[in-house]
Amino acid sequence: MYFSLVAGFSLHKVSLCCCDSVVSAVLCVTVVQGQDGWGVTYTSTKICAFKGSTVDIHCTYTYPPRINDQITAVKETYWFTKKRNKEPVDLRTDSDYTGRVQYHCAENSCTLTITDLRESDSAEYKFRFITNQDGGCFTGSPGVTVSVSDLQVRRRSSEQVELRCHSSCNVADHPSYVWYLNGQKMEEERFSLRVSVNDHNRYSCAVKGHEDHCSPPVYPPKLPSVSVSPSGQIVEGSSVNLTCSSDANPAANYTWYKENEDSPKASGQIFTITDCICVYVSCLLMSPPDPPKLPSVSVSPSGQIVEGSSVNLTCSSDANPAAKYTWYKTNGNLELQPLSKESLTFSSIQSSDSGDYHCTAENELGNNTSKSISIDVTCE
Ligand SMILES: *[C@@H]1O[C@H](CO)[C@@H](O)[C@H](O)[C@H]1NC(C)=O
Ligand SMILES: *[C@@H]1O[C@H](CO)[C@@H](O)[C@H](O)[C@H]1NC(C)=O
Ligand SMILES: *[C@@H]1O[C@H](CO)[C@@H](O)[C@H](O)[C@H]1NC(C)=O
Ligand SMILES: *[C@@H]1O[C@H](CO)[C@@H](O)[C@H](O)[C@H]1NC(C)=O
Ligand SMILES: *[C@@H]1O[C@H](CO)[C@@H](O)[C@H](O)[C@H]1NC(C)=O
């Protein structure tokens, strides 16, 4: 006996931002632009990164070696950002960044490293250097725009998975199933069981009459997770892999959706984003589609059917998406109007209800018809 997962469903929001490759070296507060030899060049001007990761912002800068016989010396370098109407300050003294910023500066270059990124770090970062020259202060503007996004897993409260009982050997034509919840026999006799993805109970199943061949206990499959590679900053023109993972048996079919779009963006476990696009994607885990298998019919209670008693006929079939059921009663070769969906319930069965019954299971991919069973109502 083994289990299969029918549909685990999960939405993961991933935002990736657009990147451009404009390099800038503009303007100083006090010194006239570039042509005099003043300038700041940033390696990239837009950087996208995920919450918790580390970002490196790099620049090189130039200045005239001497002005009016005075040799230029750099007195101070720092990075700053202007946020929430605060005056720009050296990031090392900004309490929002305490313990999270480092400068690695060499001659004419400087790298700002921000660790443990927060969404509130999304801002434009600029580099400034101050020299001994009169008014010799230069800011590289525009700066580098950093967008920090969060990788979210959203669960639908109604999210469910279907556990199905499979028998690897041939048993009776219409087997009844027995389910165990944490080792305790359950009332449920259908071949499948719907449970919440948040259900951490152990389930196992067996074919009735063959209870010694229980399936090994299982937990409902874990919600799939999405990982991003590379995990740090995403710069211009690079490709990004989103990988959806879940332990499913049989192997799951992964489909990627863009937020608010019904048609899939891609299928397969890895979704590669090669161009600069802004996307919100979700990852959907599904078992491959399957037309209905031969439906099995169960009669409850089993044994002799006595007039006036309550009887249920249940139809079940392995199908993905789940099958819809219809019951038929045949009188000789005459097929009567469909009777009911899924379960056919007689609260007080009559001898006129005797006859042959069958059901059909149908989904988008096809239909299948059960063997017919004979109901023989005896008088008390
Ligand atoms: C993305 O996945 C492809 C195929 O598995 C692999 O060749 C490539 O190196 C991956 N790229 C990154 C950035 O992980
Ligand atoms: C996964 O499912 C989609 C949609 O049903 C289908 O187009 C695709 O071919 C399937 N992929 C695999 C690997 O089964
Ligand atoms: C009905 O189910 C049987 C057994 O699962 C399968 O072999 C058969 O192809 C199915 N018939 C149709 C019409 O799908
Ligand atoms: C038949 O099904 C109904 C509704 O599902 C249930 O209340 C009733 O107990 C069942 N009766 C038998 C005999 O299984
Ligand atoms: C079942 O499938 C067959 C062949 O695909 C089709 O001709 C028939 O109309 C279907 N029956 C029902 C009840 O949908």
Describe this structure in words.
The chain has 380 residues and is mostly beta strands. The chain folds into 4 domains: 3-149, Immunoglobulins (Immunoglobulin-like); 152-207, no CATH class; 225-285, no CATH class; 296-378, Immunoglobulin-like (Sandwich). Helix content is 0%, strand content 47%. It contains no helices and 38 strands. The strands form 11 sheets. Strands 6, 10, 11, 14, 15 and 16 form a 6-stranded mixed sheet that branches. The chain is rod-shaped. It binds 2-acetamido-2-deoxy-beta-D-glucopyranose (NAG) (5 copies). One 2-acetamido-2-deoxy-beta-D-glucopyranose binds next to strand 25. InterPro entries: Ig-like_dom, Ig-like_dom_sf, Ig-like_fold, Ig_CD22, Ig_sub, Ig_sub2. This is B-cell receptor CD22. Residues 1-19 form the signal peptide. Residues 142-207, 224-260, 295-374 form the Ig-like domain.
Brief account:
This protein has 380 residues and is mainly β.
Task: Describe the secondary structure blueprint for this structure.
Layout: E1 2-5, E2 7-9, E3 11-13, E4 15-16, E5 39-42, E6 46-50, E7 55-62, E8 66-67, E9 70-71, E10 74-81, E11 89-90, E12 101-106, E13 109-114, E14 123-131, E15 137-139, E16 144-149, E17 152-154, E18 160-166, E19 177-181, E20 184-185, E21 192-196, E22 203-207, E23 225-229, E24 240-245, E25 253-258, E26 264-267, E27 270-273, E28 279-286, E29 296-300, E30 305-306, E31 311-316, E32 324-331, E33 334-335, E34 343-346, E35 355-363, E36 366-369, E37 373-375, E38 377-378
Parallel strand pairs: 6-16, 30-38
Antiparallel strand pairs: 1-18, 2-28, 3-17, 4-28, 5-7, 7-13, 8-9, 10-11, 10-14, 12-13, 14-15, 14-16, 18-21, 19-20, 19-22, 23-24, 24-27, 25-26, 25-28, 29-31, 31-34, 32-33, 32-35, 35-36, 35-37
One 2-acetamido-2-deoxy-beta-D-glucopyranose is lined by residues 300-301, 310, 312, 343, 345.
